[in-house]
Design goal:
432 residues; six-stranded mixed beta sheet
């Protein structure tokens, strides 16, 4: 078999891996996805898709009608004080002048949407559930071989032209690429997540955060309000920070827990504009996970192997751009394949473009990301105020937020004026 006929192998069928598969199909490169889970199900809670990622999905033919089925366009991002007064609020998506909307969506339903698109466009054999990539070998003939463990524990080897590690936080591909990497890093924050029926506030499609770095709540709707009941699906994240010196002592990094195990942290958070305990208690299930990331690595590439998504840059979710960046990773890598073909040079160009800036973003998010404004307010007035300008002047607030958006890659003028990552009808070159 000629090298050009070999597929690009993708380790992981999450959002990044499936976006990579759709991109490869779009540019004419055969691929196969190895997914450890035997049956993909719409698990998880809410995420935000920033306009830079929605642009890429639209260019992939995943349009507004598709995204409207699994979420809703966001209109506002707001931080408020403990007495409900605004600290900072700005429009989002189309309301902010972007050419593309921002979406608040259910993570699992987005994954299933992309999975169905892959099966529809590439075929039923494009994804192999129940198959986990456990390692790889770069070969002298310019190919790469993946070690794959099947559902029954049977190991095999698969050879392709490239291997893309999209296998998330516990990436086996990254572990082999960087065997000396430090362990998962926990900074002391514990998050509990859930989805509850509730009445949307403010614009009806607002992302709202309040509290401090020690304790805060974020919530936003991920569905339109029902016309009869007025209730929407409200995604919420409740968070407290504790002393991390002894490390994470509980089993697992993401698991369902009883609401009574953590609700005491928020029992007093009852306001005339929001009853936090009531909102949390209406959830059918809650998930606990520590806020974690990994120290950046110097490269995401090893010969014909590259990392994308959380395997490359798992980061604190303080900027709501983890899933968005996984999609952007796939598209940037696709653009490099268009330019260089399915070659090591394409992976080198991708690594040179994104590894440095995204490593900086990982570190920036450790500093609370855009929620750093809450910390400023808490330090200066304890979180309650009548006039925010007397606490943090408007110019200081605007400067803080502009810096974050530049770093995260979705400053409005820059994004609106940028050419498509992959121009229509572009195809990847091939190797002899």
């Amino acid at each position: 078999m000629r090298m050009a006929q070999l597929p690009v192998m993708i380790a992981g069928g999450g959002i990044g891996g499936l976006a990579m598969a759709l991109t490869l199909h779009q540019i004419g490169v055969p691929c196969i996805v190895f997914e450890a889970v035997r049956q993909l199900r719409p698990l998880g809670v809410g995420i935000n898709l920033q306009p830079n990622a929605v642009r890429e999905l639209f260019d992939l033919g995943v349009g507004a009608a598709d995204l409207d089925r699994i979420g809703m366009p966001a209109k506002e991002w707001a931080l408020v004080g403990l007495n409900g007064n605004d600290i900072y609020a700005e429009p989002r998506g189309l309301e902010a002048g972007y050419r593309w909307p921002q979406y608040s969506a259910h993570r699992g339903r987005l994954q299933i949407l992309l999975y169905e698109k892959v099966l529809e466009r590439i075929g039923a054999d494009a994804v192999r559930p129940g198959h986990r990539v456990t390692g790889y070998r770069n070969n002298a003939d310019g190919t790469v071989t993946a070690r794959v463990e099947g559902a029954e524990g049977i190991s095999s080897e698969e050879t392709g032209v490239l291997l893309i590690g999209a296998d998330g936080l516990h990436s086996a591909v990254r572990a082999q690429m960087h065997p000396g990497q430090p362990p998962i890093r926990w900074g002391g924050a514990i998050m509990w997540r859930g989805v509850s029926p509730g009445i949307p506030i403010r614009t009806g499609a607002s992302f709202v955060g309040f509290g401090t770095h020690r304790q805060r709540l974020v919530f936003y709707p991920i569905s339109p309000a029902d016309p009869e009941t007025g209730l929407a699906a409200i995604n919420w994240i409740a968070e407290v920070t504790v002393d991390p010196s002894e490390g994470w002592q509980k089993h697992g990094w993401f698991k369902p827990v009883a609401i009574d195990s953590f609700i005491h942290h928020f029992e007093g958070w009852t306001y005339d504009w929001l009853d936090v305990p009531a909102l949390i208690r209406r959830a059918e299930i809650a998930y606990e996970n520590p806020m974690i990331d990994r120290d950046p690595v110097p490269t995401w590439q090893d010969d014909r192997v590259a990392l994308i998504g959380d395997a490359a840059h798992v980061m604190y979710p303080t900027g709501s751009n983890g899933a968005s960046q996984a999609i952007v990773d796939a598209r940037v890598l696709g653009a490099m394949l268009v330019e260089h073909g399915p070659t090591r040079e394409a992976l080198e160009a991708y690594d040179a473009k994104l590894c440095g800036p995204m490593s900086e973003l990982v570190l920036r998010n450790r500093g609370a990301g855009p929620f750093g404004l809450l910390n400023m307010v808490d330090e200066r007035c304890g979180g309650e105020f009548d006039d925010i300008d007397a606490v943090v002047p408007a110019e200081e607030r605007a400067r803080f937020m502009a810096g974050y958006k530049r770093a995260a890659g979705f400053a409005v003028e820059t994004l609106n004026n940028a050419p498509p990552t992959i121009a229509a009808d572009n195809r990847a070159g091939t190797e002899a």
